[in-house]
């Protein structure tokens, strides 16, 4: 497969095929991770750690790891360190330059020999709660040019939780013996002290033990529209895990049912259209005299970011700094990139 051919010809507009099959214990020599897009960063996409386990329960023997990214922060080799899942140091993670108008970033992992895969765990970029939005959102995985996974990765978080997260886990088998062997070599599960028997791994990953019985290597598990097998376990939701398309349609449907100022393209999808977007700020989180926002983005029917370069924005009090809301600088803690204005709970609502 040529690098240019990796794209969305066989996918919907958001880059992930609607129907994806996960094979039983696939084997190959070259694994490719295709980072289709980040959660919500227009310039970067990144990962923390990638863990790969074989059908023997051992970690895969890696010969080399390369990427097509021309601009990177951190070393791509750090993805395979195997012990960085709790790391929040950007120097120990990997970040690549991203552009929605160019081909996707990919990472090639070549094994030392033909390898049969049993499990892959993805730890997303986790520098901070804000910069976690640089983590990969939609991911494709290919083994020797054959698609073995496609779906959404959960958005990471940086703060300590009462229950440790398990990353995004992709299983290629439900065989008890293989899972038991994996648990003996799984550094994270050993440190967490959560796996004490074979079935514990299945329980923690929310995998039904009545899953398809062991089948030959050419068979597949059918999981249409699933992000991953047991991908988000004990993880506080920093982002909605539903497909972005359905979430957008739901929001637009709610708006379309109550607004007389907009029209719909059809009664089936309730895609709203209009020229003026009116927003009122009724209350803040406790400040007595100020209220503000960092940014506003508009998404199309498939979750694509709409161009706001020709939009104008005005505030009721005439504050010109309100134009910062459309600057696109949403992953920031810089006050100069945000909009803050005077506010009174008893006064007029800002719009």
UniProtKB/TrEMBL annotation:
It comes from Steinernema carpocapsae. This is KATNIP domain-containing protein. Residues 77-152 form the KATNIP domain. InterPro entries: KATNIP, KATNIP_dom. It comes from the Eukaryota.
